[in-house]
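Hello forum,

I keep getting stuck at the same step: I have a sequence, I want structure tokens, and every attempt I make locally crashes halfway through. Rather than fight my setup again tonight, could one of you with a working pipeline run this one for me? It's a single chain of 180 residues.
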Amino acid sequence: MKEQFTRIIEEIGEDPKRPGLKDTPKRAAKAMKYLTRGYNQTVEDIVENAVFPFDGSEMVLVKDIELHSLCEHHLLPFIGYSHVAYIPNGKIIGISKLARIVDIFARRLQIQERLTIQIAEALQKTIDATGVGVVIEAKHTCMMMRGAQKQNSTMRTLAMLGTFRRNQAIRNEFLSLLRQ
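Reply #2:
Ran it on my machine without issues. Output:
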């Protein structure tokens, strides 16, 4: 990867040997590996033993989970927040694991629409929740820095599974909690 970044620097007309760029290919390769580390992680590895028995059936919601991902079309970042909710069905999951599930999928080349669904489906599969709701709000630098160049646009995507899809009252409760 380091050699490929050297070539990219040369292709844009820069000298990869000049002092400010000398170590850039190595740093860029290291950064890319970090930003895409989700390919080397699984939900099962992250969750480990953090699923616990639980008798309740009220909604669990974690708001404002920061996320950073790379747009698969331009390799530019999109940055925002994920809001993840579920209705337990005999099991709950440690809240830090919700953030880690978000990261597993965000740390891959992505589109926001798929990312939202992957998070919801992974949580559903992991704890067999009665329902799962995921909303992601993000700003895409590919839209801000090139193309349309719209600085203040935010993309929102939703994935609703189980009772979040079937029961309008639960869906409305979830969406109203996001506004608080």
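The first strand starts at residue 51 and ends at 53. If your local run keeps crashing, start a new thread with the error log.
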